[in-house]
Amino acid sequence: MDSDTDAVVDEWQARLLGLSHSLHAEPEVAFAEHASAAKLAALMRSAGFTVEEGVCGLPTALTATYGAGDLTVGLCAEYDALPGLGHACGHNIICASSAGAAIALRSAADRFGFRVKLLGTPAEESGGGKQLMLERGAFDDVTVAMMAHPGPAADRASVGESTQACTRFEVTFRGRPAHAAGAPWDGVNAADAAVVAQVAVGLLRQQIPPDHRIAGFVRSGGATTNIIPEQSVLEYEVRTPAAAGLTELRSRVWACFEAGALATGSTVEFRRTEPDYLDLRNDQWLLETYAAHLPAFGRSALPLPGGLTTASTDMGNVSHVLPSIHPMIALRGVTAMPHTHEFAAHTATPPADEALLHAAKLLARTATTLAADAPHRETYKAHHQARRS
């Protein structure tokens, strides 16, 4: 059974690696992944899947389905890149590995009577594409959801790590322009408000737990040196280990921005820019099943369930609704960290290709194990029926 799905991945190896390398060569950012989505759709059609593009009102989202039955295995394919960095988070690997797993499951789906659904999920890095697809029904028929995420080398993979909850927002300070040399006292400096606020945020970091995160940047803060800046705009995010902590930390950070407005006489406005990302809740049995197959590929895992990583993913939102896994898979020999130029340079190399093929086989093996295990299959079906009722 495992050898069958492994063999299909091997058969499709050239096309899967071709997809990954093509995405890497032509990176597209959140909600602009038009060529990437089209390449994935073409591959899935060539494998006999029924493909729908532009689903959920999202032009770069898609679904590809095969088979029929009362169990639907969902495989999430991400393909958005990072602005200025390209595929520095390895979403080209994620896309091709999920596609490979889906294609490898065709014969198992026929044999065990289940359905395979690949979900092309845009805008993971920013925009919360999976949450939008959740809200709009793309996951309604999915019993379990899976994907694997690449990371740097490790002796043993932290396959069971949870991720942090995250909320992102835009801050706009509005002041009053004046001649910066002739009458600066007539102005209200919106850029100064941003400076005061960021100093306050920096001081706040001393008072928050070590597993909380605050990050941001100034998007605009003036147009020329001889005008007191009338407006400044910042983008910020806060992260906490669980969604319950987001509101408190966000309130404390917003107070820092309100202090900037108070100190300078400007006004401040806040705008939530995307859905909150929830903390990841890996399904224990699916995770154990995935980990049990690691030794076949010369890999091993840290003890489950694993710790907490300070990264965030909208797969966390999926995991709050249906049984899901999001294990990490190492690029062996690569020590660069994600979201760097160095890691991006490694995501279309032999270690990346190996991780892609291993992830495809591991996900396919996990799904086949579930489909063939009658008691667990019934358990997950019951969970799905309860959710849908």
How would you characterize the overall build of this protein?
The protein is α/β, with parallel strands linked by helices. The chain folds into two domains: 2-163 and 277-388, Zn peptidases (Aminopeptidase, 3-Layer(aba) Sandwich), CATH 3.40.630; 168-272, Alpha-Beta Plaits. Helices cover 40% and strands 18% of the residues. It has helices at residues 2-11, 13-25, 34-46, 91-104, 106-112, 129-135, 190-204, 246-264, 284-292, 315-319, 341-346, 350-372, 374-388, and strands at residues 50-53, 62-67, 72-78, 115-121, 144-146, 149-151, 165-174, 213-220, 231-240, 267-272, 324-325, 328-330. Strand 1 and strand 2 (62-67) form a beta hairpin. Helix 2 packs antiparallel against helix 4. The model has no long low-confidence stretch (mean pLDDT 96).
Short synopsis of the structure:
By secondary structure, the chain is an alpha/beta fold.
Describe the secondary-structure layout.
Blueprint: H1 2-11, H2 13-25, H3 34-46, E1 50-53, E2 62-67, E3 72-78, H4 91-104, H5 106-112, E4 115-121, H6 129-135, E5 144-146, E6 149-151, E7 165-174, H7 190-204, E8 213-220, E9 231-240, H8 246-264, E10 267-272, H9 284-292, H10 315-319, E11 324-325, E12 328-330, H11 341-346, H12 350-372, H13 374-388
Parallel strand pairs: 3-4, 3-5, 5-11, 6-12
Antiparallel strand pairs: 1-2, 2-4, 7-9, 7-10, 8-9
Helix pairs in contact: 1-4, 1-12, 2-3, 2-4, 4-12, 7-8
What keywords describe this structure?
alpha/beta, Aminopeptidase, 2 domains, six-stranded mixed sheet, four-stranded antiparallel sheet, 13 helices, 40% helix
